[in-house]
Amino acid sequence: MNLDFSNPAVISVVCVVALVIVLAVVWVVTRQRNRMRTGELRARFGPEYDLALREYGSRSKAEAALMERVNRVSRMTIHPLTDAERERFLADWEAIQARFIDHPRGAVTDADELINSTLKARGYEGGAFDRRIADLSVHHAPLVEPYRRANTVTVRAGRNEATTEELRSAMLLYRALIEELLQANTPVVRRDVAA
To answer: Could you tell me which of 44, 57, 141, 151 has the fewest CB atoms within 10 Å of its CB?
Structure first.
């Protein structure tokens, strides 16, 4: 078969075939990039990825929202605590744990405030709870669900609706959060939280 490349019809067919091939290659490459991005976001955000999918209703919208979190947090200066800050927060945590026995609701509220203060000292901007959770999820995705559960109890405690067992559970969750956020070489001293 001999193609006459001086014929405009042949040139048009060749151009269309080349365009189809280029578009197919672009489509395959884009799909692979999206799969890689999806895999990276799933690995980074864990259960938060699935929550975003439910919240936004589509993969592309959920992934765009998660990437916006990453971009927002990347503009912050997140840093470890100084030794002095770490010691102060550890001392504050010890005082809050000791207070739980006599004032469980107040201790849970203080624990929530200590988490907020620790986040701010680490360089997170703070703000409403949903914003703090979103920002925290970028570098500490496994902490998000425990933080949500603890905060839910704290809100209920503020309305005098939380049981002592729920308050104790919230304190245990806050303890795990503070341990992770302080990133101390020595663990936070654990006291049994009385029920």
So the answer is: 57
Residue with tokens 């078969």: 1
Total length of the chain: 195
CB 17 within 8 A of CB 112: no
pLDDT tens, residue by residue, 49-63: 999 999 999 988 999
**pTM assigned to the model:** 0.73
b/e code 19-36 from CB counts within 10 Å (16+ = b): eeeeeeeeeeeeeeeeee
Contact present, 150 and 112 (Cβ < 8 Å)? yes
From the number of C-beta atoms within 10 Å of its C-beta (0-12, 13-18, 19+), residue 110 rates as buried
Tokens 């001392």, residue located? 91
Residue 108 identity:
V
